[in-house]
Structure formats: structure tokens, C-alpha cells
Amino acid sequence: MVVEEKVTFCRICESLCGLVATVEDGQVTKLRPDKDHPLSLGYACPKGIAMTDLQNDTDRVLHPLRKNADGEFERVTWKEALDEISTRLRAVRDTTGPESIGWYMGNPGAFSYSHTIWVKGFLDAIGSPHYYSAGSQDVNNRFAASALLYGSPLVVPIPDLRRTKHLLIVGANPLVSHGSVLTAHRIRDQLMDITKRGGKVVVVDPRRSETAKAFEHVAINPDGDAWMLLSMLNVIFSEGLEDTAAIQAQSQGVELLRDAAAGYPPEATEERTGITPDTLRQMARELATAESAAVYGRTGSCLGRRGTLVSFLLDALNIVTGNLDSPGGAVFGRPPVALDEVADRFGLATYGSTRSRIGNFPDVLGNLPATLLAQEMETPGKRQIRAMFVSAGNPVLSVPDGNSLERALDKLDLMVSLDFYVNETNKHADFVLPATTFLERDDLPIAFLGFHSKPFVNYTHKVVEPAGEAREEWEIIEDLAKALGVTPSSVPPIRWLGKLGIKISPQRLADILVRTSGDGDLFGLRRKGLNLKKIAAQPHGIVLAEHVATGELGTKLRHKDGKVHLGPPEIAGELERIKTAAFEASDERPLQLIGLRELRSHNSWMHNSEILTRGGRSQPLHMNPLDAARFGVGEGARVKLASKSGEVEVPVTLTEDLVEGTVALAHGWGHKGGWQTANGLGGVNVNVLAPSGAEDIEPLAGMAFLNGIAVSVELVSAGSPAAASVSESVTAAPQRD
Ligand SMILES: Nc1nc2c(c(=O)[nH]1)N[C@H]1C(S)=C(S)[C@@H](COP(=O)(O)OP(=O)(O)OC[C@H]3O[C@@H](n4cnc5c(=O)[nH]c(N)nc54)[C@H](O)[C@@H]3O)O[C@H]1N2
Ligand SMILES: Nc1nc2c(c(=O)[nH]1)N[C@H]1C(S)=C(S)[C@@H](COP(=O)(O)OP(=O)(O)OC[C@H]3O[C@@H](n4cnc5c(=O)[nH]c(N)nc54)[C@H](O)[C@@H]3O)O[C@H]1N2
Ligand code: SF4
Ligand SMILES: [Mo]
């Protein structure tokens, strides 16, 4: 037997921890944390280790599958699959046009540079606007806010974790999520270090989350963030705590915020936020007077009704307190491949350059709101989606109103999925094409290079050859494009080369991007510069600098006046809208539902792992005992949880960690795909409770409304406490050394 050890890195979450794979006769038999990774230093979480379970899973799809007349999947050859898909795809294009072909790329797609670039390239080459991703359920509001503030959706500040003296976290739980829109290895340690050096971490969250428990917690009502942030601005302006010099040097339009904030003294927002005026004043003063401070928000600040406004205000706080682009503040990474610059070059840094057919929502980086997918498939007319591709995604479980999506998928002329499982979404496909895992492909994590709390770059070769007949997404896309006579690229010169039969591989493209970047070797002109080979030669990765650069704002701003725009009309509109915003909860639906991430789950796709489900798992509704008493519900009771859009039945677990009036349920459950262990776990699809009408979509970025949904709870049966007790312990596991 040939046994090898191969250095690589995990691509499940944005922490990108170093891993060492044991490979026996071409098969990965073990993954362990890489002690020699200069930043993750021998840390990996249970999911990274459990990836071997998925890699070798007997439920994995290893051959092309085609649905037969009985609705069952049967194995076919790649040639049969591609021939038939090509014929049917051409038929769709020729009858209803290329604009009736859509693609949804899920979250794991973002962890593969080739996958991401090729999907967008395919749609751009055929001329279809129907590009969807997990972004509209995750982060597009953050990008939209950046487009308004800085003039590019891809100019996104991160907290300078390694230097800050004060970190205000709004709606993120990095002790479980391990960080997002922020690549910070051993993030728990980096956060602990802030308090160790005399600084402070404050966590604003409706739940006393694992992170909130480790630091200072400010409890807030779901979706109360905009009011909280406006009140913080109110306190800062009315007490003269703003950094006038910084505001003047960096920005224009502050009057809008100053005027708006005047209407929100802390007393006026307490009912919305649940935060007492004293606490709020203290939060504002501490932030404004800290030696350095950074405000950081993640999904908890994105999935409410006003995500773009909230992201905008988070940055506004950084700016008015003089913390933008300065050490210990909110800083701009200077990555070896600067996405903002690359996207500018090819016109890809778009916001609002196309609009959705339904609802007229602006695109964000080409993405349209995935919440609209079912309607885009079912509403007749030009641009109606008739053929749909889904790669690395499970929108039936991750997008609002999964039931409607299931119905719509069945009515398509063609549905094709690229995945390594049959999941709840692609079970509706005509074809499931076997994709590689991240261990079976190379990677340069282009999407995340700019978000490292310490500038860093790494590249990995594939660890093993693809299992079975699995192929990389970009290779499959090349074949689909060939069938339509196009070269899958967003870049016209590459499409022209394609016409001449000259193909550019992902590796070649990555090399060009690295070599022409600020750190690149400029094809030999800069001898010490980087190229892909040099990066690959150091498999544990390369630390590029001790700290993220500051004083970068000038090079980042795309607005012609060279200023951050604090008063754009879009935000003025949102500030008007918020004035009359109704309370979400009502007598009929008195509670608000939020999400919950678990250490041993990853969205919808790791519930088939033996390691991660050992000892049993369940998906209880977390509920405050005071609310439970109000509804006559005890530990382990089964309840009907209903919103205006749907209902589910779940067991209850009681916890004082949630603010009164808020209940929490994890997403990514309720399996009925080809993953048998996952199917056996039970649970429900929480997103049948999320509304999918255009009126429920956030207007500036098309964000899904997933946090703060008004719900009612009704006792079904008293149940037994044991029913809920097998739920994952929600305390963060200690980091291993
Ligand atoms: N173990 C694990 N890790 C993951 C994932 C996973 O599924 N499992 N998923 C990955 C993905 S795709 C992402 S995008 C990241 C997300 O990374 P994070 O955003 O850091 O993770 P969440 O746990 O969603 O944290 C959101 C927090 O916001 C709180 N919250 C909910 N509503 C509100 C609100 O209205 N206001 C405020 N202030 N807070 C609110 C929630 O209680 C929760 O604690 O995590 C990634 N990492
Ligand atoms: N209620 C609620 N809903 C949410 C959220 C929430 O907090 N609350 N969070 C939202 C967020 S932040 C996200 S990112 C989304 C995630 O939602 P999605 O991106 O739609 O779905 P995932 O659960 O990530 O499913 C990923 C699929 O990709 C497959 N896969 C994994 N790796 C690869 C690969 O390398 N190649 C291919 N081809 N396939 C692969 C898996 O088998 C799985 O079928 O969920 C969103 N939905
Ligand atoms: S924290 Fe876990 S899932 Fe995230 S990169 Fe590290 S090992 Fe992978
Ligand atoms: Mo996400």
C-alpha cells in the first residue's frame, strides 16, 4: 500500500484551516489539522476532520444520473448525459432564448475559484441575466452597501482584529461560524487577545450566543439593528463624540445621517431594540472614545428587512468615529489578487446594472434575488426560466418558501445539477452530474484573500484524483458551453481566443491574475514578485505582512469625488421607509423567529457524516421559558410553529439565552434526499416559514427575509424532555492545539 501525507486546506468555511490528508492508495483516509500552517497552527474544527466521511460516503453520487420515466435516477455515461442535456438545452435556447436559462450556485461554489468564474462566464457568454447564488440569503446587502458607500460592491472593510481595542459585533457568532467576510484563523484566540490586551468585545444578538457568552452581550430584538445604530449615531452626534476631521477628510453627505439620527434618541428606540437608553449611550460612548474600534456585522445584520441600511450604518459608525482605514479600525485588505480591481477591469463589479424581471430588484455582482426563483420559473413571458442549473446548492432548504420552489422545479423543461449528493433540490433534476469535492481539485481562494485578518495567500493542488466519474464544475461547464457554441468567460478577449480554439485553464488564469497583481512578478519584471508556482511551492501558505495595510482608502474609493458617500438617495429612501415600519410581531403571531448555526452542521450539507451525527442529533426550537409558560409549553413539547407563509412541527427546548419574544430554529434540516443518515435525523425545513413575495424582499439588495419572521406557537403534544435533549450542545468546543 502507498501511504502519503498531503498538505492542503479546508474549504468548508471561510477560516480555511490548514489540513494534512493521509492518502492510502489514492484514497483520503484521514484529515488532521496542519500544525505547520503559520496561522491556523494545528487547529481544525469537527467539520474539517469529518470531511473524510463525505469524501468516502457510500451515498455520494459518483456517476452521472438521469431521471427515468418512473421518476427514478439511473446511471448513464457522461456521453449520454451530455448529449441529451446539450440537445435539450439547445432546444430551450432556440425556442425561448438564452435568457430563459438560469443558474443557482450555492455556497460551496464560492470556495472554488474555477467554479465561480466558469458559472458566471457561462451565463455571460450565452447572454442570460438569470444568475442566482446563496448571496441573496447571505451577504449581498453588504456588497450593496459598499457600492453606495465606496462606489464598488467589492470594497469591503474588515475589522482589524489583531490590533483593535474595541470590537462591536452585530449579529455574528464567530465562535461557531469561525468568521465570515473575515478570514481569521483561530478566531477565538484572536478575539480573546483583544480582551487580553485591555480591549473590549461587545456582541449584539437576540441570543446569548457562544460568542456573546465569552464576551459582553447586549441583547437586542430581532431586526432592531437599524434603530440601535441610528441611536448610537444620535448619541455620538449629540454629545459631540464624532471625529470631525476624519469625517471631513474621508466622506461627504454626513448631513443625511446627522439629520436622520436626530430623530432617534435612545429613549425613542428602546421599544424596537429592547436596549435600555443607559446601555445604548454607554455602547456609543465606548465605541467613540476607544483608542481604536471596529464595528463588524454578519448574517444577523443581513437577513432582516433592512439589511442594506444596516450594513451601511455599521460602516457609517466606523467612519464618524474616525476608525475607517486606520490601525485597529475597519480596514481594507490588500490581497495578492484584488477582486475589486479585477472586477473593475472586466465590468463585473456591478450593482443595479440589470434588474429582476419580477419585482425590478437590482442585481448585486450579477446576482438576482433567489427568493424569486419559483416565480421566475412560473411566470410566463420573455425571460421566463425554462432550463435551470443548480451547482453546489440546495435552495429548497436554503431559500424562502422551499415548497413553491419544489413545485416550480418540476415544471421546467430541463433541470441539471452539479453535486456529489442527491439533495432536496436536485432530486427534482433531470440529471445529476457528479462533481468533485474540494479535496479533488486545486484552489487559490480568490474570494477570501482580501478578508484575511493577517495578509496571507495559499494554493493547494488536488489531494487525490476525483472519485468514480466525478468531474470539476468548470470542466462540465466547458462541455455545456461547447454545446451552445460559446466560450464560458465573462471577459470578451478570452471569448475571442476561444473562437480561435485557444483555451485558458483555471490554473493559467489564476497565474495571470497573481502575476499582474500588486504583489505579482509581472512576468519577470518584478523578480521578488509572486506567481502561482511560487505560492504552490509553499503548501502551508505564505504570510504576506504582519498587519492589514491602512491608509488605503484613496486607492479603494471609486466615487469620482474621492469620498465615501454617506448620503446617497437610496439610503435616504430607506431612512424614510423605516419611519413607518410596522412591528413584525402581532397578536396573531406574537413571536419572532431567527436562525441558529451549530458547530456540527454546515448549512444543509454535512448531516450525512457519521462523526458529526454521532450520539444522535435533533433540531429543536429554542425558546425562552417565559414565552414557553405563556404558551403552556414545556421542555420536549411538540409545537406547531406557523408564519403567514407556512407551518412546521418541532420539539421545543427551553433556554434563557434567548430574549423574550424570540424563538430560534436552525436551517438546513428536514432531509429527504439521497443522504440516508441525514434523512433519518428528522427535522424540518425552517424556510417554509420564510415569505417569498416581492414585498418581503429587501429592496436595495434583494435580500431574503430570514431573521425576525413573525410566528405563532401552538402546543401539539406535551412530549418528553428527552426529545429535545439530544440536540447539539451549543457551547463552543475548545480549540485543540
Ligand atoms: N458551524 C457552522 N459554521 C458556519 C456555517 C454553518 O452552517 N455551521 N455556515 C457558514 C456560513 S454559510 C456563513 S454565511 C457564516 C455566518 O457566520 P455568522 O453570521 O457569524 O454566523 P451565525 O451563527 O449565523 O450568526 C448570526 C448571529 O446573529 C444573530 N441574529 C439573528 N438575528 C439577528 C438580528 O436581527 N440582529 C442581530 N444583531 N443579531 C441577530 C443570531 O442569533 C446569531 O448568533 O457561518 C459559516 N460558518
Ligand atoms: N433560515 C435560514 N436560511 C438560510 C440561512 C440562515 O441563516 N437561516 N443562511 C443562508 C446562508 S448564509 C447560506 S450560505 C445558504 C446556503 O445554502 P446553499 O448554498 O443553497 O446550500 P448548502 O446547504 O450550502 O448546500 C450545498 C450543496 O452543495 C454540495 N456541495 C458541497 N461541496 C460541493 C462542491 O465542491 N461542488 C459541488 N458541485 N457541490 C458541492 C452539497 O452536497 C450540497 O448539496 O443558506 C442560507 N439559508
Ligand atoms: S473552522 Fe472547520 S470548517 Fe472552517 S475551515 Fe476550519 S476546519 Fe474547515
Ligand atoms: Mo453563508
From TrEMBL:
**Listed SMART domains:** Molybdop_Fe4S4
Name the InterPro entries for this protein.
Answer: Asp_de-COase-like_dom_sf (IPR009010), MoPterin_dinucl-bd_dom (IPR006657), Mopterin_OxRdtase (IPR006656), Mopterin_OxRdtase_4Fe-4S_dom (IPR006963), Prok_Mopterin_Oxidored (IPR050612)
- Which keywords, in A-to-Z order, does the entry hold? Iron, Iron-sulfur, Metal-binding
Put simply, this protein is called Unannotated protein
Q: Which SUPFAM superfamilies match?
A: ADC-like, Formate dehydrogenase/DMSO reductase, domains 1-3
Domain 4Fe-4S Mo/W bis-MGD-type, which positions?
3-59
Q: Name one GO molecular function term.
A: molybdopterin cofactor binding
Q: What species was this sequence derived from?
A: freshwater metagenome
